[in-house]
Amino acid sequence: MAIKTTVSELAKLPDMNAPVITLNLNLNKLAYDANEQLRVKNILKEIQKEIGPSIDSFVNEVNDLIRQELPYDGITMISDRSGSNVYYLIRTSVDEADYHTDNSIDFLLLLSASPNADYTLLELNRDNSKLYQLQNKRVSPLAVENYPLTVQDALGTELRGGELNFSGRGGQTQYHGHNETSQEKQIDQERYYHVLEDLLKDDPSLREHDFILMGLPQNINLFKKLNKALKLADISIDQSVQSLAPDKIAELVNKKIEDYNNTHSNEAITKVFRDKLFTDLNTIQNMLNSDQVRHLFVASRDEINGHDPESYAKINVMIKQALAQDADVSVVKEQPDMPLVSAVSH
């Protein structure tokens, strides 16, 4: 059975027996496009002809996954020549089906094609909120049991701003007033955000997620100030998204993530780590052998192939080693003055 995995998890597996087959599938097209279905059928025949009968089990796994109608735009399937070890990774876009065989897994290619990380999105308004999930660059509403969509749902009779609140004690009812005040509404908002945090941090399916906050800056800043337990992403959507459909929210969030990742990688090299970078390949390899690399920066495939194609295989091994050691690996684009590989030590 094919195993869903990530690039980092692949790097920790034993080396596959060459050749390694990498097959890219556009699942969207396969669902309706007869030409794409024929293309995949012919590709599988080509793989069988190139590798031989030992790959038949891989072909069966491919067909099984296609029949499952997985909820992804595309996938990349990877197997060795025996077909007994089959893995697949989620892809956000595959133009059309293709495959290639290599002596080992092409980790730089996989990193370049991998989707954004998944996030939980928390829309924050003054008296209501919503949860969404970002998976494979798509946004959809997220249902969580007992989630209070409004401040009224969260506080009930304890709501202060603009409500007639009461409490009973010893058979007597005490009224707290009718008047709506800005201060009372502020208190209600803070208490509402505390309820949200407590609920989300105790949910086993969400407590380890990174949250992207969405809303007016004052709402985001208040939640950040109050938050003690949730893992908040470094980016946020600093505008109201109440009137936006999920696909429009996805456009905003994905653009923000892409911009952040590019800026973060480029600034890390040009500013943060400018005087701490090691750029000699032998030195970097020795650092990896000693598990001393904290962050590895690698140029794009096109840049490496354009400037020093003979180093591609060596750089690919470095990427695998770094990923297996849980080091951060960033593919750096639009930095032509930078070396093809650079590293920062622990």
Automatic annotation (TrEMBL):
Residues 118-257 form the Bacterial archaeo-eukaryotic release factor family domain. It holds the Pfam family baeRF_family6. InterPro entries: BaeRF_family6. This is Bacterial archaeo-eukaryotic release factor family 6 domain-containing protein.
